[in-house]
Amino acid sequence: MSLDYVKFTPGFDTFMPKEYRDMVEHGPFGKKTTVSQMGSFKEILEEHPMCAGCAMTLFIRLAIIAFPNPEDTITVGTAGCGRLAISQAAIPFVYGNYGDQNGVASGLSRGLRIRFGDKPKDVVVMAGDGGTADIGFQQVLHSWFRKERFTTIMLDNEVYGNTGGQESGMTTRGAVLKMAPLGKKFEKMDMVAMAKIAGCAYIATVVPNNPRRVESCIKKAVLIAREVGPTYIQAYTSCNIEYAIPTDQVMADAKTVEDDRYKFAEYVSEDAKAYLAERYGYKEFAQKPVAAVTTV
Amino acid sequence: MDSTAIIGTTNKKGQVITDPRVMMNDAPRTPSFFTGSEVIKEAVRRANVDVMVAYPITPQSEAAALCGELFAEGYIGDYFRGESEFAVMSQCAGAAFGGARVFTTTAGPGTMRAMENFPMWAGSRLPIQCIVTCRGINSPLSIQPDTIEIAYLMNTGMLVWHAETAQDFYDWILKGYMVSEEPDVHLPLALCCDGFFVTHTKDVVELTPAEMCLPPYDPYRSPVPCMDMECPPVRMMRDPFVMKSNYISYATHASWQQEIWAAAERSRKHTIAWLDGLIDVEDGDADILIISSGTAVSQGREAIRLLADEGIRVGLVKIKTLRPWPEEELLEATKHASHIIVPEFNVIGWMAKEIKATIPNSNRVVAGPRVCGGMTLPPEVIVEEVKKAIGMRSGVLAGRGG
């Protein structure tokens, strides 16, 4: 992105809306901002129409702050609660059709690479559990098998929240929801295992009540997707409406679910480790020097 | 970017970027004996295409695979096989959102499977070109020529053109990009032909020089921002209209839909210039006219020759563009006609319905003959329909009907 676009046209600065002025003067474009600084800068996503206490919204805010290069990032999504927030952000959001976000992202990523070559243009998919594991399943899996170089983030609230609380493939077995009047009959889909089988170079499961961890995972996922291969993050982002979680208990619920079925797990392929170490100085993935052999 | 500045320079493959009007109208042409599928390849070779996404379905598989050879030769920037037509059209959308010139092909059930994408392409103003090699879509299964899918495409907001011959196909693929990428149009183009009849038969086609190509697509001439973060940040949905039940949300959707159809109307002037009119008329002051599109026109032309042998004079109107629909042109062309015969390769007779809805005294229109599912349309059947319309007894197919 030419950062000139995030400047005032001379003579117009005093006439621009406050929202715009704040983005220019206090926004994150061209700067390094972190989740620890939340509240001290203008976020790319602030206004949104989401429900009070929505964990998904918190996660989306954290994820967008973590983008390593927001001035050259394009997000892609599909139907669901998440897009109602993401579409309010000050970076482009592409909504194609129901469940085709990974197909759109495949084409977008390839088109941008043809046009911009090595200049990083990060493509990040953020879609719900229904969009990713149900209606979008085929395109998600095929984008991974094709080794498309972009990041897929599942906003997993374990329900179709936007349409009023229907069972999804990511709902846990036994949950009684709309379209599952006798309780869900099969297990929560193991998309993490499928991501691994399909060859994702980086996979992580996270919950939003650990912002630093979310930031770290998103950053790694986006960087690895630039050159190594597809990356997948599965985030528990509860629906406090459909699961009747009291607003003040949303973070406690996330902790409970984290301890139950959303334990933090991270997979980094060997290629991705080497790439992060060599290109971006990740010391934890650097090859350890061979210990000096001492002879007695 | 000054688009004239790149004329005369070369692309990555070494082809000379040529003024499209010079390339299409003035450059020397070489007669070549090719199948329709090979002609698609030759047109794409000269179209400076960035991304092509392919998927097998008869009868477009050969053309889609031949474009893969072009990619291997370096004429197309990127090429891959998608996992279904719906996925392919989504992948095409993504590439176009990112500012690439995009090409794809589909047919029949593939067109139907991809259908959700087509209004989205139009609504997002993506000037993707999709070749549609029409075939049967209904059960029982037919892979044979049938144009019924065009009836669905005509209501998507896309430009829809219907090629009669391989020569049409060759010229219109190249000219199609020039029309659909105009800033005041900027819509996808469904360039249709009758599967097998055009794709799998050989014909002599006059080709432009292979060392010439179209100028590349310039995404910054788009009327909507390119999703490449080189423009000011944009939102496809500034406010989530879909969630709001209020007048603003209705008006936003409605006004944008009207703009899409207005953009298709604005393509007329460009299309008329490139295709030399939206219709072709032969012997237009005849009392009897045959009107159709695609290879039904070829069969109509043959029927006219047979009728002329019997002293019956019949004119011909070839409709080239279905969207935009040549309403004014048809009103003019049909104003003296007493009988209008509309032969079609589909069961529902969408062309006859369109014509009836356009012209006064629509009882002049004979909605047929129609064949489908791969049946041929012998000129003799059209001859019989003409004779029936003018009250003559037909001996050609005696015993058929009353």
Summarize the structure in words.
The complex is a heterodimer of chains A (296) and B (402). Chain A has 296 residues and is α/β, with parallel strands linked by helices. Chain A has one domain: Rossmann fold (3-Layer(aba) Sandwich). Helices cover 35% and strands 12% of the residues of chain A. In chain A, helix 8 links the parallel strand 5 and strand 6. The longest helix of chain A is centred in the last third of the chain and has 17 residues. Chain B has 402 residues and is an alpha/beta fold. Chain B has two domains: 219 residues, Rossmann fold; 111 residues, Rossmann fold. The longest helix of chain B is centred in the middle third of the chain and has 29 residues. Chain B starts with 15 loop residues before the first strand and ends in a 13-residue tail after the last helix. The C terminus of chain B is likely disordered. The interface between A and B is large, with 44 and 43 residues.
List low-confidence stretches of chain A: none
The average pLDDT of chain A is 93
What number of domains of chain A?
1
Beta strands of chain B, count: 16
Fraction of residues in β-strands of chain A: 5-15%
Helix content class of chain B? 25-40%
Instruction: Could you tell me the CATH topology label of chain A.
Output: Rossmann fold
CATH second-level architecture of the largest domain in chain B: 3-Layer(aba) Sandwich
How would you describe the shape of chain A?
A: globular
Determine the structural class of chain A based on helices, strands and strand pairing: alpha/beta
Would you report the number of β strands of chain A? 7
CATH superfamily of chain A: Thiamin diphosphate (ThDP)-binding fold, Pyr/PP domains
